[in-house]
Design a protein that fits this description.
The protein has 13 helices and 8 strands. By secondary structure, the chain is α/β, with parallel strands linked by helices. Helix 11 links the parallel strand 7 and strand 8.
Length: about 280
Amino acid sequence: MRAIDVHSHLSTKPMMGDSLSKFNEAMEKHYKFKLAFKTEEEMAQDFIKADVKGILVGWDAETNTGLPKLDHDYLAKVVKDYPDAFAGAFCCVDPWKGEMAIQELRRCVKELGMIGVKFQQIAQGFFPNDRRCYPIYEECVSLGVPVQFHTGFTGIGAGLPGGMGLKLKYTQPIPYIDDVAADFPNLTIICCHASWPWQEEMIAVLQHKQNVYNELSGWSPKYFSDSLKAEIVGRNQDKFMFGTDYPSITHDQWLGAFEKYVTSDEKIMEKVLLSNAKRILKLNV
């Protein structure tokens, strides 16, 4: 196993054809790829052939988008059916669903074995530091599981009139995620993506908050800022994890660009590709 991909989406119809259906055109243009629905077996083979263990993420932005959520039982079954391809999954709950969201989070962790919860605030339409969300974070602390927050730009709605009504403001690291990190010091927070255009803010939060980490999916390392590259190989090298945002970016594309544009140092690569994820996410793979 050469890497753990901590941020992967399903490329099957229930995810890409249903839960994300109206966003696919913009996503294809932004990431310059052609979406093709795959079977669960075909998707698993993408990971096995790349010698990568994936962590899948769920989806529920039903309140803000009207699109159907991804069924968590289906997500858990894919992970269970293909252990050679997948190391686990993050559920996704709609924060606007209140107590129902907490109950679903609890079920996903206790009954389905999921390792944490993921939010996409642009699609879900909320600020992480909204006090109405705090009971969800309290439940995460009680369960001992991490939370993922999307940061920065998104390909969802990109390049379309009004960005399809979606607003980037929800994913700024300061103050929104920084507030949560300060108010929940025992909560492990994983910030997704390269955080552009707030890259410097993300680095500041990483440096200031011990409980905050960063995974690098959704961007080719070719486009990482110089400051981000310096942090990956420097003082925050223990805080970064490999992720692709599959199927938008392939494993070979990301890994090749990382070695070419960021570093080929074996020690750093081992941390970013494997050991950081094992430690931060408490994985036994």
